[in-house]
Amino acid sequence: MHKSVQDIINMKKEKKKISVITSYDYSLASLCDKAGIDVLLVGDSAGMVMLGYENTLNVSMEQMCMFTEAVSRARKNSLLVSDLPFMSYQASIEDAINNSGRLIKAGADAVKLEGGSIMAETIRAIVDIGIPVMGHIGFQPQTTTLSQGYKVQGKTKDTAMKLIEDAKELEDAGVFSIALEMVSHEVAEIISQTVSVPIIGIGSGVGCDGQVLVIQDLLGMYEKIKPKFAKRYMNLSEDIIKSLEDYKNDVISGKFPAEEHWFSMEEEELKKLREQIGG
Ligand code: KIV
């Protein structure tokens, strides 16, 4: 049985740190699940790291459902949370409920959406019909980029107070957890101590209840943007390019394929074939 939303809530109560990683495809999701990652997040960052868009705005519901289905086929133990993409929930509560339902049918256990107090009513409506919601405040890739570009949030007393109020409102609205992106670490720690639901930080310091990273950042596979907060655990791009160069050279030199990679006919059948074609 895979982890439940309640298991994640309990981890905060038991003072256990929560590990979250983004996942978009079957192969990598299987490895994340095997590694014991608590939550797989099908983030709309898929638009950038999987589809090559400049930002997350063009990601569609169809694409999010496809990524969610692939990850859900892979996961055995982790909780699976999927992002509601830009404009799939902002225009109406009806949109938000319908699209949350689509992600759940695609295999998600919960949905995530961006926005503070302005989203409280929408969150309440989704939670009321029984779909768990993860909030997302601080830097909000779907909209903060439009107004401010990439900017650390909560650096002044007033913006910090707004973030604390937003977190409390989301908690009241019924979220089971909140992603907190690029917020000064002091404010992130205060928020984590203020609300009862787990705060999952990204670029928000060590005081959060858990951490999330984009898997391509962690593996060193995405070169376009290298955020300061994204710790690289390996440099997979280099290894992949080196392996592909080796492969190309082996093809050119005839070193690949070797005998262990091909299939043979029975000697007798080959003889008959040669006789027939006069070889
Ligand atoms: O889409 C995403 O990857 C996210 C995380 C950065 C929290 O929302």
From TrEMBL:
Binds 1 Mg(2+) ion per subunit. Coiled coil: none annotated. It comes from the Archaea. Keywords: Coenzyme A biosynthesis, Cytoplasm, Magnesium, Metal-binding, Methyltransferase, Transferase. Its cofactor is Mg(2+). HAMAP family: PanB (MF_00156). Homodecamer; pentamer of dimers. This is 3-methyl-2-oxobutanoate hydroxymethyltransferase.
